[in-house]
Amino acid sequence: MTRPEMVNGFTSEHLSAQPQHIRELIDRRAKVLGPGYQLFYTNPVEVSRGSGVHLYDPAGNEYLDAYNNVVSLGHCHPAVVEAVTRQLSTLTTNTRYLQTDLLDFSERLLATFPAELDRVTYTCTGSEANDLALRIARAHTGNTGVIVTRNAYHGVTAEVAAFSPSLGPASPLGPHVRTISAPDPLRHHNVTDLLRIEIRAAIEDLQRHGFGVCALVVDSIFSSDGVQPFPTDLLSVLAAEVRAAGGVYLADEVQAGFGRTGAGWWGFGRHDVVPDLVTLGKPMGNGIPVAATVLRNEIGREFGQKVRYFNTFGGSNVPIAAASAVLRTIEREGLIDNAREIGAQLLSGFAEIVEAHSFLVEARGAGLFLGIEVTAPDSTEPDRALAQSLVDDLRENLVLVSASGPHGNVVKIRPPLVFSAADAALLLARFADAAARVRR
Amino acid sequence: MTRPEMVNGFTSEHLSAQPQHIRELIDRRAKVLGPGYQLFYTNPVEVSRGSGVHLYDPAGNEYLDAYNNVVSLGHCHPAVVEAVTRQLSTLTTNTRYLQTDLLDFSERLLATFPAELDRVTYTCTGSEANDLALRIARAHTGNTGVIVTRNAYHGVTAEVAAFSPSLGPASPLGPHVRTISAPDPLRHHNVTDLLRIEIRAAIEDLQRHGFGVCALVVDSIFSSDGVQPFPTDLLSVLAAEVRAAGGVYLADEVQAGFGRTGAGWWGFGRHDVVPDLVTLGKPMGNGIPVAATVLRNEIGREFGQKVRYFNTFGGSNVPIAAASAVLRTIEREGLIDNAREIGAQLLSGFAEIVEAHSFLVEARGAGLFLGIEVTAPDSTEPDRALAQSLVDDLRENLVLVSASGPHGNVVKIRPPLVFSAADAALLLARFADAAARVRR
Question: What is the pTM of this model?
Answer without folding.
Answer: 0.98
